Amino acid sequence: MNNHKPMYARRRGQLLRERAIESALFLAALSSVLTTFAIAGVLIYESVPFFRHVPILDFLTDTQWTPLFDNAHYGIMPLVAGTLVTTLTALFVAIPLGTIIAIYLSEFAPHRLREIVKPFLELLGAVPTVVFGYFALIFVTPLLQKIMPDLPGFNMLSAGLVMGIMIIPYVSSVSEDAMRAVPMHIREGSYAMGATRFQTAVRVVVPSAFSGIAAAYILGISRAVGETMIVAIAAGMQPNLTWNPLEPAATITAYIVQVALGDLPHGSVGYQTIFAAGLTLMLMTLGFNIAGFALKKRIREAY
Amino acid sequence: MAKAQVEEIRGIISRHKRWDYVFGVLGLLSLMLGVLVLLALFIQLFIEGLPRFTAEFFTSFPSRRAEQAGILSAWVGTLLVMLVTALAAIPVGVGAGIYLEEYAPKNWLTAVIEINVTNLAGVPSIVYGLLALGLFVYAFGLGQSILAAGLTLALLILPVVIVATREAIRAVPGSIREAAYALGATKFQTVLHHVLPYSTGGILTGVIIGLSRAIGETAPIITIGALTFIAFLPAPPVTAEFPFLSFQWLLDPFTVMPIQMFNWTSRPEEAFLHNAAAAGVVLLAMTLAMNGVAIWLRSRFRSRIKW
Q1: Interface touch B131/A104, C-beta < 8 Å
Q2: pLDDT (tens digit, 9 = 90+) per residue, B67-93?
Q3: pLDDT in tens, B126-149
Q4: Closest residue on chain A to B160 (Cα)
């Protein structure tokens, strides 16, 4: 009975240790918030000198982006156009294929086929993007040139198509999850009314899972907007205000890569422009991500 | 029912059923397209890169002459950067996962952290490069070093590690925790001795998937200004004199596999494209091996633990 005291002391030491560990774990969790603040902080802080030099109106309306030339123009439009064209080309591939694959895997495919095929699809998303870029430049572009002899060596079409293939798994896996979350009794109701498998899939399951599918599309969009290496390698790095995917053009990300590859003294004009470009990119993806998050939240409350 | 009517209904049914068949074929074709592209990519890389697969390719530095160029500095750089990334991302990511699953009270701060993790997973990788350029390279003065690159990639894969840790921990049934508490274990003892061992498989899978993503990341490393032509190795981590360990390599300039491949891809001479393909094969082999291990681990742990 007289070893009370050491026991209390031990317990107190233990409690202190528990507190310390909890604080450390909390700091680890907080690091994600700090990262977000750091991203916003760095992008804004480093862009301020740029926007002091270039009025925002010029930035948004000028049709040329030549910040490193003597006759410097600072219009972000050519880069945004390049980003949008490659993104749209990619979505043109990824949304139909991703949706069909998701419906097929969720509603049609036998269990064993799904188990075999899914790792392959995941692999498609795991291939390093620089390898996809090489593939677009060396394999897809020459292939397209056989059909369209006038196609330049660098073009947004080939980059966009390969990017579309790359984001198929993102679109298909999230859509498939959303469709599989649709309760069985809804399908059974549809079958009981005499609907076929295809009718059930397209008229019952897809509409019920629609917000999840839309979230998958948005995830795909924000992937495509932020994708860098494929476009930097295969679409060329010259800013070019065009909506024609057959032409070469730089995206926001390709411009950042191009400037970063050169000599980049701290505080130089080139250094400032990549942060302004990065801020634009961040705002674009942030908008998509917020929309996706809101949609995802809605699907959880659906049933 | 009149016979004609039955026939008519049969016709309608078979017409509608035809769509099932058509869609089944369409789905298979779409899947095949994805798999075929993957195959074409592999075959193309192998055919182009095969002539460059010699022992010298792995033991030579990059060179202006394509036939003599190799990936020695690139694979050593990749290995060292991955080491830093793993050492930084695992403790922080697993710690954050444990906190969010086991400790976090239900309040606004926890909600903010959770939304943040989801959001960070959607930030383009090049933005992490810009963050690192402003913060690690200039504000912290780390320069274009292995340490700066490793920390950048660690931030990039942090959401992957956190989400995997949370999922693995969530799969451990509450009864295990209650049993530990009943025997007087503290919260951390319960986590360390019971929850973590059961979730190691899931956590490891997530870490490996995260690292396999980091190994192929090019954009953020280019953005921090990594050099593309490095014809020397970082300082060795082990030295002959006391204290036998050196950390000079952390601050050395470096190059990594994907940057080496990008550099060769963007050269006009065709000979370099073979080098790029060979480097691509090595890079793919690394990524696929890691993904394979992750899939194997997942299935192994899933079949071994039965609650």
Answers
A1: no
A2: 777 888 888 889 999 999 999 999 999
A3: 999 999 998 988 888 888 889 999
A4: A32
The CA distances from residue A68 to A71, A269, A274, A279, in Å, are 8, 8, 12, 19
User: Which position has the token pair 């309306």?
Assistant: A61
- Here the ipTM equals 0.88
**Which residues of chain B make contact with A168, given a CB cutoff of 8 A?**
34
Q: Cβ–Cβ of B276/A228 closer than 8 Å?
A: no
Alpha helices in chain A (DSSP H): 4-53, 56-61, 77-103, 111-126, 129-135, 141-147, 156-180, 184-192, 197-200, 206-208, 210-226, 229-234, 252-261, 269-300
CA A198 – CA B17 distance, rounded (Å):
8
The whole-model pTM stands at 0.89
Q: Enter the tokens of residue A161.
A: 């198509």
Partner residue opposite B96 with nearest CB, options A29, A46, A168: A29
**Chain A touched by B271 (CB under 8 Å):** no
Give chain A positions within 8 Å (CB) of B92.
28, 31
Q: Using the beta-carbon criterion (under 8 Å), do A292 and B122 form an inter-chain contact?
A: yes
Q: Which tokens hold the place of B285?
A: 């082999």
Q: How far apart are CA B63 and CA B71, in angstroms?
A: 10
Q: Tell me the three state secondary structure of residue A74.
A: strand
